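Pipeline run #58 for the internal structure catalog. This entry was flagged by the ingest filter as a single-chain record with no existing model, so it goes straight to prediction. Upstream metadata was stripped on purpose; only the residue string is passed forward. Reviewer on rotation: M.T. Logging verbosity set to normal.
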Amino acid sequence: MNASNPSLQNTPSSSVALTRILAVGSLLGLILLGLAWELVLAPVRPGGSLLALKVVPLCFPLIGLLKNRMYTHRWVTLLVWLYFTEGVVRAYSDRPPGNYLAMIEIALCLLLFASSAMHIRWRFRDLKRNALEAAADAKPAA
């Protein structure tokens, strides 16, 4: 890291910070929805079911997103499609209120995918801009 050069420091733009907040929020929403859905709101079996364990894989990217790791944003865009597929299937096949919860899951998945994809794109844009500025500052005066 170039701690001595302030222009190379990672100071995220407001759009990058917003997409990170949206990604973390939608991931937390998916975790809470999955637990509430399978334990309280509309469990497959009365008293809850082991389907609540489906949220365990969502806990792993939460750590990476909170630490602002680019690689986590990349692979969470792939993982989220499993939950999207579950939401589509259950929105079509479940009875209320399960199908309404599935629609919320679909919306949260789309929000997570879009915010992570835009986070990656805008963060690379900012990195490129910072590198160009640093290169321009490093040029010797002619």
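catalog note: DSSP finds four helices and no strands in the chain.
catalog note: Residues 15-42+54-130 form one domain.
status: ready for reviewer M.T.
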